Amino acid sequence: MDFELGTVAKDTLRLAQECIHDLDTVWSDVDNLVFYNQVKVLESFIDSKISLTHLWPSTGYGYQDIGREGLESLFAKIFDAESSLVRLSFASGTHVLKTVLFGLLRPGDELLSLTGRPYETLCPVIGIDTPDHPRAGSLRDFGVRYKESTCLIDFESGVIDECGLRDCLETSVSRETSLIFIQRSRGYAHRQTISIESVQKVSEILNALYPSLPIFVDNCYCEFTNPIEPPGVGATITAGSLIKNPGGGLAPTGGYVVGKSKYVDLVADSLYAPGLGKETGSNPYGYKDVYQGLFLAPKVVGEAVKGASFASLFFERLGYKVDPGPFDKRYDIVQEILLQTPQNLATFAKTIQAFSPIDSFATPEPSEMPGYTSSVIMAAGTFVQGSSIELSADGPFAPPYSIYLQGGLTKEHVIYACMKVKDAIHEKSMS
Fold it and tell me: Tell me, which fold does domain 10-39+298-430 have in CATH?
């Protein structure tokens, strides 16, 4: 940027320019990743012979919906999976994960999480938010047991080696274990994102030791951040949300499930009804936004990754702890920034909202949210409500007052918003 921005302090602009210059190699690597994933997506469109008729709506039962079938063919190809279930009837990522869990688990089964406590909104689904008694309608209420281990987190942190991981898995998996769960992104936990290399290593060990034990990966926030996805490295079934990475900022709602055919079919029965499964489910509004969003997703995710690396370096140089670091390899689009005080957290969220294209006049305040144990402040002036591939920021209003920045349809939006945050925090500290 070789120009002045009158609404940004000169030292702020200077710091931003320095960060952009120093990220040149990082962004070049992102460009290479985007090119690879864009070619993969384009070739999948061509191989699937997608036409204008695939964009048309369907009604009623949705039998023989060519748009739905074409979209699911694309997801299976792109994610290197046998089959996929892609539906706009999924309301959120949590809804997708819940449908998978209820499709694959039966009374008496045991769910084992290898990444510790799941994200807050999944805890009521499992029934571990109320330890004294299972929540009505939860997995525990239906007689499904739950166990968790942090061995994959420990492995990701470099604490144990491959032999240690194998020993930990053998200790954690019991005769009753029926499904392995891996949450790749951190949620509000202060841990690293689970890398695709770790998913591969865990899959290799588990598939060798327990070949009939399915591995379920929550891939939210991680799609297109690497050249390969979990089904390509041995995961049995993988799921995510369309209003995150794979929707490219255009998908209005929905989610996806990809993996082995027999497990995808069980999830489809769980979503609809046994005997109906994947053969039903209409969309009276058409599929154009979902198809186009998927086509644009590699580029949009690349912009979000560049924005996250900028935010990491920018706020690190302002003295804040950040994770991942600006030059770390990234496996999702989420950037954690430890802001240290409630005032900084509130100012950060309010500034992100103020410099959003939608609802910039709104003022986010910490409030109780369904599924969360503490008040949460959320900023998301997005075209699609709650879209996490668009620039948003949120965090629990509790120590260490971390903000979780994610998304950004353009890196320029992220850069400018971060500059405004810096100026706003400085102004607050001076008042």
Answer: Aspartate Aminotransferase, domain 1 (3.90.1150)
Cβ proximity of 240 and 183 under 8 Å: no
The Cα angle at residue 148 between residues 175 and 161, in degrees rounded to 5 = 90
| CA–CA separation, 161 and 154 (whole Å) | 9
Per DSSP, the chain holds a count of helices (H) and strands (E) of 12, 12
Percentage of the chain exceeding pLDDT 90:
91
Sequence-ordered list of residues with C-beta below 8 angstroms from that of 125, at least 6 positions apart, any chain: 94, 97, 98, 101, 138, 139
Pick the residue with more confidence: 157 or 129?
129
DSSP per position, 21-90:
HHTHHHHHHHHHHHHHHHHHHHHHHHHTT--GGGGS---TT-TT-HHHHHHHHHHHHHTT-SEEEEETT-
Asked whether this chain's domains 10-39+298-430 and 52-286 adopt the same fold, the reply is no
Residue 173 to residue 181: CA distance in whole angstroms? 12
- List the domain boundaries for the chain: 10-39+298-430, 52-286
Higher pLDDT, 162 or 364: 364
| 76 token code pair | 């299976």
pLDDT tens profile 254-269: 999 999 999 999 999 9
> Read out DSSP for 123-192?
HHHHT-SSTTSPPTTSTGGGT-EEEE--HHHHHHTTSS-HHHHHHHHHHH--TTEEEEEEE-S-TTSSSP
Question: How far is C-alpha 80 from the chain's CA centre?
Answer: 19
What is the C-alpha to C-alpha distance for residues 397 and 401, in angstroms, rounded to an integer? 6
Which among 76, 94, 95, 93 is positioned nearest to 84, based on CA atoms?
76
Backbone Cα Rg of the chain: 22
Q: Which fold has domain 52-286?
A: Aspartate Aminotransferase; domain 2 (3.40.640)
Q: Are strands 83-87 and 255-259 parallel, antiparallel or unpaired?
A: antiparallel
